[in-house]
Structure formats: C-alpha cells, structure tokens
Amino acid sequence: MSAISALRKLEQQQQAPATGGLHAMMMQRMKQAGEWATWFKKQLIKLAHKGGRFTWIISTTMLFTVIPLGIEIMREADVKEMEALRVQSLKAQGFSAIQIANMGYQDPNAPSLSEALQ
C-alpha cells in the first residue's frame, strides 16, 4: 500500500460518521483510554529510570560529603569537651588562666566575643 492510499484510508476513517450511537462512542473512548494508559505507562517507566538516577546521585553525594561532615562535627565536639576537661584538670592543679592559655588551651568558661555579642 502506498503512502497516498494509506492517507486516503485514514482520512476516510476520520470523516466517517459515527454509527452505532452510544455503543460506538463508548468503544472509541475505551480505545482512547487504552492509548492513554499505554502512554502513561511509558512515561512512568521513563520517570522511574530518571528517578533511579536521581536517587543514585543524591545517595552517593550524601555518602561522600554529608556523612563525613557529620562525623567531623561530632569529632570536633568531642575534642572541645576533652579540652574543657583538660583545662579543668589544670585549674585543679593550680595553673593560672594565663599559664593555661600559654599551653595552647582556651578556657571554656571565659566569655567569648560571640557570646558577648548575643
């Protein structure tokens, strides 16, 4: 069948009057619903593939950036707590605040600039 005859046949099908009344209309709507369902299924599969890629990108980014950052923040809090205990221990031994500062420790009870501004 040539392209021209196929186009003529398609044109005749489109121009044909709807015979059969309600039954024919319902059958046509069911056919359209099937076509829409097929299209929707294809789009859903595409979205699932893209969503899988997006999930992979987010999860690997979290694995290599956010999780180490969280671990580092927890480690820093532990270090500050250890330094506070060390400063208290040095104060209990009789060292002055200046001597403790010269050792490289910062007194956790001393007011800081950020606390003074609040």
Automatic annotation (TrEMBL):
Q: What is this protein called?
A: Mitochondrial import receptor subunit TOM22
Domain of life (superkingdom) = Eukaryota
Q: CDD domains annotated for this entry?
A: TOM22
Species for this entry: Saprolegnia parasitica (strain CBS 223.65)
**Organism taxonomic ancestry:** Eukaryota, Sar, Stramenopiles, Oomycota, Saprolegniomycetes
